From TrEMBL:
Annotated coiled-coil segments of the chain: none
Keyword tags: Membrane, Signal, Transmembrane, Transmembrane helix
Pfam families: Hce2
Signal peptide range: 1-23
Domain Ecp2 effector protein-like: 101-205
Superkingdom classification of source: Eukaryota
Region (Disordered) location: 35-67
Organism from which the protein derives: Colletotrichum navitas
Membrane spanning residue stretches: 246-266
Protein name according to UniProt: Necrosis-inducing factor-domain-containing protein
Length: 267
């Protein structure tokens, strides 16, 4: 009996020197009361998330009492400025000012889709009767034909003939009503085929000594306007010029003939 008591006292003393241990808790297996399937899971705290995503700017936080800034808006005005408005034309105010172009070159482009000759002759009559000058501007290239006049299936338009110097021309491009009538009638005479006609050409037109340009014209039918922008024409004839230039040439010829005669009489 004495030995049993001594053993109990020794055991109590040994337990008194052992540090307290957190009791081990085994959670029950979810929805299963079978102890043999009990699973121990050790929970781990997730790693910290980065405050800034790679490749993106840091997130912005609203400051109390301050409204967040509005999102950046694209400039509508700058986009509108980049958009080309395209060529346009207007009619001069002087009806009598209707012929300003010299001789024209010609090239025929009559095809099955060309304008009716009868419509083009009517267009020429209308242009001659209307008179005035027609001013064109706003060309972004030299392959866009701007239609100035139309009658039925026949249209007449102009464009810059050369791309390399069009941006240096500030006065625009222009043609008179009589100029239109003359080139249309000549084109009908030379390029009519089966009652159809299509043609283009280049002529030099002058308003003043500071405003004179080469103008390429085209006579085209329905659906041919885009194609007419690529029609090629010979350059302005070397003899083309203003009426003043022709007058000077005639005066020079007369002077060259009479000067020797006058010199002979005087001597």
């Amino acid at each position: 009996m004495v030995k049993v008591r001594a053993s109990l006292v020794s055991a109590i003393v040994a337990l008194a020197h052992v540090s307290s241990v957190t009791p081990f808790c085994v959670p029950p297996f979810p929805n299963n009361t079978n102890g043999t399937n009990t699973t121990v899971q050790t929970s781990q705290s997730p790693g910290p998330f980065p405050t800034t995503a790679l490749g993106r700017p840091p997130a912005t936080y609203d400051v109390p009492g301050r409204l967040p800034g509005p999102p950046a808006l694209a400039s509508l005005s700058s986009a509108h400025e980049l958009e080309s408005e395209g060529p346009s034309f207007y009619r001069g105010s002087q009806r009598w000012h209707k012929q300003i172009c010299g001789m024209s070159s010609f090239a025929g482009f009559t095809s099955a889709t060309s304008a009716l000759t009868a419509d083009c002759l009517a267009l020429a009559d209308d242009a001659a009767e209307a008179g005035h000058l027609w001013y064109a501007k706003g060309f972004a290239d030299n392959t866009t034909v701007l239609e100035l006049r139309n009658h039925g299936t026949c249209s007449f338009g102009i464009r810059p003939p050369y791309a390399d110097d069009m941006y240096g021309i500030v006065s625009g491009w222009y043609v008179g009503g009589v100029d239109v009538a003359e080139v249309v009638r000549t084109a009908v005479r030379d390029y009519d085929a089966g009652g159809l006609v299509g043609a283009t050409g280049v002529m030099h037109c002058t308003i003043s000594s500071a405003a004179n340009v080469d103008v390429q014209w085209a006579i085209f039918g329905p659906g041919e306007q885009a194609e007419a922008g690529w029609w090629m024409a010979p350059p302005v004839p070397s003899s083309a010029g203003t009426k003043a230039s022709v007058g000077r040439a005639v005066f020079s010829a007369v002077a060259a003939f009479w000067l020797p005669v006058l010199w002979y009489v005087v001597s």
